[in-house]
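Customer ticket, subject: "Can you confirm the structure for Glycosyltransferase?"

Message body: Hello, I'm evaluating your service for our small team and ran a test protein. I'd like someone to confirm that this is what the system normally returns, since I don't have a reference to compare against.
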Amino acid sequence: MSQKVQPTVSIITVCYNSAATIEDSIKSVLSQNYANIEYIIIDGNSKDDTLQIVQRYSDKINVIVSEPDKGLYDAMNKGIKLATGDIIGILNSDDIYCSNTIITEIAQEFVERNVDLLYGNITYFKDDPEIKVRTWLAKPYYDSFFDNGDVAPHPSLFVKKHVYDKIGVYFPDFKITSDYEFMMRALKINKYKSYHLNKFIVNMRMGGESTKSFKNIVRGNKEIILSWKMNGVKPPLYFWPLRIFKKVVQYLR
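Agent reply: Thanks for trying us out. I re-ran your input and got the following:
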């Protein structure tokens, strides 16, 4: 890729009491072979050793913020506001990239395809990143994408900054699925151009907020219903059966 067309990729890691996992995420970003990365870490005023671990790499991290926030999506919004890159990706504090060339590949696709959003596939692990317990193979976006229970894996999502500037960021009152609402707003409602990179982008630890407890699963589903209402659309009757079926398939694959 010519240096003249290299976009800056801002990567945001949001963390809170993540001392057990944050270093793996940081190393995953710093090991990328793409030179034009802006790395931003937003810490929610952790009470453990998270910030001390982050500070070990402060000379290689562009922005470090540590202060109380109103939750995961509020912290993400802070990072987006601070980002100066052309493209923004969010890597959770317990996830890692699947290869050290993936950001180079993503930046290349943005340049060549002139898209506004890009997403790919993700895998899940429990303790050992080499042992996959779930695989999420996404689909390219199509008109009935959300109606058919499909959704892009948010950890694999990269968005041009102008999209956030135009349609807004994440709804902070949601605690579980504000990313779902944002992607619906961007893809279904505003019809921004996207590309599905058919590669594994992120290896994600099991135990995220959406599946941590039955209460969170219920809350997440309620937020999905609200996401449709907020955007003035209504899911078809077959939406929930298809959504459940496709989640089950991820475990069987």
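A couple of notes from the result: Residues 7-252 form a domain with the Spore Coat Polysaccharide Biosynthesis Protein SpsA; Chain A fold (CATH 3.90.550.10). The chain has one domain: 7-252. Feel free to reply with more questions.
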